[in-house]
C-alpha cells in the first residue's frame, strides 16, 4: 500500500501526512456507523421513549471504538520513506524521489490489516442494515402512529434527509471495489488510483447538504441568513403597502 501525499502536510513530513491520512480514513469509517446509529435511533423513538442522554453518549462511544482502534493501529503502519520510494519505482515505474511518500510494504501485518478489513468488510452489512431500518421506519409512519401533526412533519423531514444519506455509503462501496481491483492486480490505472479517495471524499461533502436541504430549521436559516430571502420578502411587503397607501390617497383626492 503506497501513498503519495500532496498539500500542506508535506511541509511537516511523510509521517505526519500518514497520521493525517489515517485520521481521515477512520472518520470515513465512522461515518457509516454514525448513519447506522441515526437510522436506529429514529426507528427506536417512533415506538418507545427516547433514551437518556447518558445512554446515548455511551452508545456513541461504543460505536466509535472500532474506528478508534483502526486509527491507532494504522498510525504505526507507515514505513521508511526511502524504501517505499524504491519499491514504487520498481513495481510501478513512478519516479517519486522528489515526492512525499508513505505506506506499508505488507498489508497483512497487524498494523495495516485491521484498518483494511474494517473499511472493506463493514460497509456491506451496515449498508443493508440502514436500508432495512429505513423501510421499517417508513412502514411505521405509514401505519398512522398517534403523534401530533408537527411531530409527524419533523419525522418526515428527518426521514427524507436520512433516505438521501442512506445512498451515500454507495460511494464507500464503490471505493472499496476500486481498491480491491487495484490491490488484487486486476486492473492498474492512474484513474483508479485517484478515484478511490475521490469517491470516499464525496460522502463528507454531500452528507451536510442533505440536512441543509431537508431539515426545515437549517433550510430556513440558510435562506434568511445567506440568501436574505426574508429581507427581500419584507421589502416587497413594504413596497406593496406603500403602493396601496398611494392608491388610497388618490381615491380620497378624487
UniProtKB/TrEMBL annotation:
SUPFAM superfamilies xrefs: Family A G protein-coupled receptor-like
Q: Where in the cell is it found?
A: Membrane
Q: Name one GO cellular component term.
A: membrane
Task: Recite the UniProt keywords alphabetically.
Answer: Membrane, Transmembrane, Transmembrane helix
InterPro entries noted in UniProt? 7TM_GPCR_serpentine_rcpt_Srd, Nematode_rcpt-like_delta
Segments spanning the bilayer are 23-44, 56-77, 115-137, 158-180, 192-215
Kindly give the membrane topology term recorded for this protein.
Multi-pass membrane protein
What protein family does this chain belong to? Belongs to the nematode receptor-like protein srd family.
Q: Identify the PANTHER family for this entry.
A: G_PROTEIN_RECEP_F1_2 DOMAIN-CONTAINING PROTEIN, SERPENTINE RECEPTOR, CLASS D DELTA
Q: Which protein, by its recorded name, is this?
A: G protein-coupled receptor
